[in-house]
Input
Amino acid sequence: MSNCAIVGINWGDEGKGRMVDLITQDYDVVIRYQGGGNAGHTVVNEFGKFALHLLPSGIFRSGVVNILGNGVALDCESLWTEMEDVRSKGVAITPESLKISDRASLLLPWHRDLDGLEEARLKDKKYGSTKQGIAPFYSDKYQKKTVMAGELLYPEHLEAHLRDLLEWKNLTLTKVYGAKPYTMVELMDWMADFGEKIKPFICDTGAFLQQASAEGKKILFEAQLGSLRDLDYGIYPYTTSSNAIAAYAPVGSGAPWVKIDDAVGVVKAYSSCVGEGPFTCEWFGEEAERLREAGGEYGAKTGRPRRVGPIDLVATRYGVSVQGATAIALTKLDVLSYMDKIPVCAHYTLDGKQTDAFPFPALLAEAKPVMEFMDGWNCDISGARKWEDLPPAAQRYVEMVEQAIGCHIRYVSVGPERDSIVIR
Ligand code: GDP
Output
C-alpha cells in the first residue's frame, strides 16, 4: 500500500486544499483525520470555487472514496450545509463517495455555545477562536462526554446517553456561565434533523480501510491547519485543540497500522496567520495591506483579514521537522511577483543572541526576526508550468527556501487553479 499525508507546515491556510485537489488524481481514498468546521480549504476546479470545511478535498473526483475519520469533530449541522452547497454545484455525494467513521464523536449544539461564552469571558485575553465549538468539543471528547456517530444507529442507547450528558452539561452552562440550559426535546429534535441526514454515511470505516489496504488502494491523508497550530507541537495555547501533524494521521483516520510513506508539507511563499498569538514576522500598515490584497488573505470561513508577513524560515524549518516532511509544496509564489526586493526572515534574535531554533512557546513573543533580502523577478509567473518557465530570480528564491528548510521542494504553485503548478 502506498500512502501520503498532505500537511500544513506553518499556521494553516498554506494551500493544502489546492494541493489535495491536485494530488487526489493518483489516490483512491482521501481521509480527513482531525479538526472540524473551523478552518477552510479553498479548492478551485471545473465545478467552481469552494471553501471546504469538513468534506475531504477528494469529493470532486469521481471514483475517490472520501472519509471523515474518528479524529474529526463531526459537526453534522455544518457538514450538511456544506454537502448541500457542494451538491448544488453538480457534485454527487453518496454513501459510496463519502463515509463517516462510526467512531467519530459528534460536535453538539452546546459546544458552539460554550465556545462563544468562554471567548466572551476571556475578553481581551481571548484565543481568537472561530467559535465553531472545537475546543469545548475536544475537551468533552477526552473527558468521554460526547457521543459517537455510530450511536445514531442505536436510537435507544443514544437517548439514554444524551440524557446523562444533558444533566452534566447543563451544570456548566447554567452555573459557570449563567446561560440557558438545554432540554431533552431540543437535543432530540436536533438529532432527528441533522443526525438523520448524515446517518446513511456512517459506517465502520476502519473495516473499510483494512479491506482497501488489502486490495492495494492508495490512501491520502488530509490535514487541517499547520504544524504551528498543532496542540502538542504548536504555539500553545494559541493552537487548535487537536493534532494536525502527519504522525496523527493513522490514529485519527481509522488506520492506526499505517506507516506514512510520503508526507508532503505545504509552505506558503510568505507567512499568514489567523487569530491571536505571537507571529514574529508580522507586517503592519501599508506593506501588510499590499501583501494581504495580493494574496487574497481573508479567512475562508470567517472572512477575517489574515495577519501577514514575509516567509519565516525559522518557523518553517521547525514545521518541516515536526511533520517529518519528505517533500514540500511551495504555494503562492506568484503573489510575490510585485516585490522588487523580497524580505525573508532568516534567523531570530532572542535574549540578544541570534538563533535558528524555534523558541519554546512562552518565549516566542520576545523573539525578533533577522531579515535578509532576495531579488524579486518583477513579472507575471502565473503561466509557468515547467521549472525553466520560472525566471532565474524566482528559481533562486525557491532554491534558497529549499536549502534553508532542508527539504526538497517538489511542487511550486503559481496560481489557485488545478494546473497552475510546476513539478520538479
Ligand atoms: P488551506 O486551508 O491550507 O487549504 O488554505 P486556504 O484555502 O485557506 O488558502 C489558500 C488560498 O490560496 C486559497 O484561496 C487558494 O485558492 C489560494 N491558492 C492556493 N495556491 C495558490 C497559488 O499558488 N497562487 C495563488 N495566487 N493562490 C493560491
Q: What stands out?
A: The CA atoms of residues 36 and 73 lie 5 Å apart. DSSP finds twelve helices and 20 strands in the chain. The radius of gyration is 22 Å.
